[in-house]
What does this fold into?
Amino acid sequence: MTLLERLRAFDRLQQGRTFKVIATCVIALAGIVGLGAYLLTRAQGSGLDLSSIPDQQAARVLEDMLSGRSDPTLLGVGIALVTLLGVGVVWLGLSLTYLGLAILGAAIILPLAMFEPTRGMAQLLTGVLALTFAFTALMQLLRLALAGAGPVLSIAKTAVAEASRQRVSLVLMVVLVFALAAIPMLLSDQTPLRYRVQAFLQYSTGGSFWIIGLLCAVFSAATVSFDQRDKIIWQTITKPVSAWQYIFGKWLGVIGINLVLLLVCGSAVFLFTEYLRQQPAQGEREAFVTASGAPSEDRAVLETQVLAARIAVFASPPDIIPEALDQTTQAKVDAEKRANSNYQDTPEKRAKIRADLIKAFGDAYRSVEPAKSEVYVFDGLAGAKSSPRPLTFRYRINAGANAPDELYRLTMMISGSEPFIREVGLGNSQTVDISPGAIDDQGRVTIEIVNGDAARGIANPMTISFPPDGLELSYSDGTYRANFFRVMVVLWVKLAFISIIAIFASTFLSFPVACVVAVGALVAAELTPYLWNALDYYNSTDEKGKVLPVAVVIRAVAVAIAGFFKLYGDLDPITSLVDGRRLSWDTVARGVAYLAAVSGVLFVSAVAVLRRRELAIYSGHA
It folds into this structure.
């Protein structure tokens, strides 16, 4: 029997129903046995006698933190994903094909992994191979899901097939796979574990989203534009296919591709993050255990501040009396008129003066002179009173030029407790764990900070100040894993929004112009928070108060763009994930509702434009 005949025989075998049923049972059984064996090895507990800890609150905190040591999520999710993919590949009739490719890949990778100089290359190839297998299997399953009857599904399936043929799409997909597989190699074992996890989440999630976003924008513009350019749309529209079915089919195909890419990238990021979590932190002899048996500070920060879903509360500034603010504003205006006879009193300038005064009041409240003290109140903490995890007080002080070799001593008193001293560097964030017992019946925590060592009567040489985000009290509300799921949902909705912008633009613009519009929308939407901050410092008048027409137009355009994408920009899921902040379902619902409404308007607009297009004339002259 020749090689070709053997390959055909293997193909007939893997296509048979009996083989698929047997292979499915074997894969499912292997997954169950593997998970069971893992759970048995982890059932031994933490090995730390918590009953010996006199402070019951501290014991609860430690027990909650150590629960991550025996958490089966990493292997459980990994086995579930591999099992589901394996079953999917079996029923696609590709199991022996994938098995052969896996054996061939292992034959290349294993020799490389045996030698130190080539071990990094082996790890990279392993990641690339795993991601490629997952991506190709999910793409095949997507085609299978879109195989139903009807014009919408047919157009969506055609769009998916088209994505696999276009060079630009293939290049971006290859870049995505290699980039995601290479990021773990950039992490240093010498770096504290919390920083490694944060760096990986930042670069893997953010980098994946930007690459998928560019692919989404380019392909969405191309799939409609090229149909018109190549006259394919003639054959589609002349059939009993309405304009809305065509647009919706294209959109469905694109968001299906986005879902596959996010599933692959999200699963890879989640699993590797869980893998990092099980590695020894700084100061630990093994994961979660130091020489004393308790987790290290690095582990505590990782579990309570990074791999968490925290709600942050900022210090509440004293109330501003409106009458006093109005009087001070008027005094400022009068002083400007006396200093400059050409000064024009406009509502815009008065608003700017009021904003500057409010900012100056906040800056003064967050400043403490040497040997002086200030009390900061944090409200809205009633929900954290019964939590087993501590609250985290994060602060950052500035003084002078923030010399890196200077250390300042601060005295802190939390809700009337005994004062304690902290020696801190300038310009760097510091944290203090606070027991939930410090929360009073009104859900408040008060923290008094003295600029100096009050016990010794030693003051620091200069006034210290806290930036607007430099006084924060946060508590855990939910789990990191649920937060990760919400982040992936928001990213998918954002990509769907960018897709419909590109499809709408390509109904009446050429591919290059539609591509610029789509990519520009992606960049503008993602940079909206920075644009709002920049507008605070952009003036449309010169020093003499003369209006600059060009600046007025630029500001108006910037305000319109920032306003249109404001809710999109407020949804900052990646930052929330990296900082361990909770992305609430309320925030997700508001953002998704807004993006869905705008997407609906763009969809209707795209359908209306397509109905009015002279497609045959346009395509004939393309």
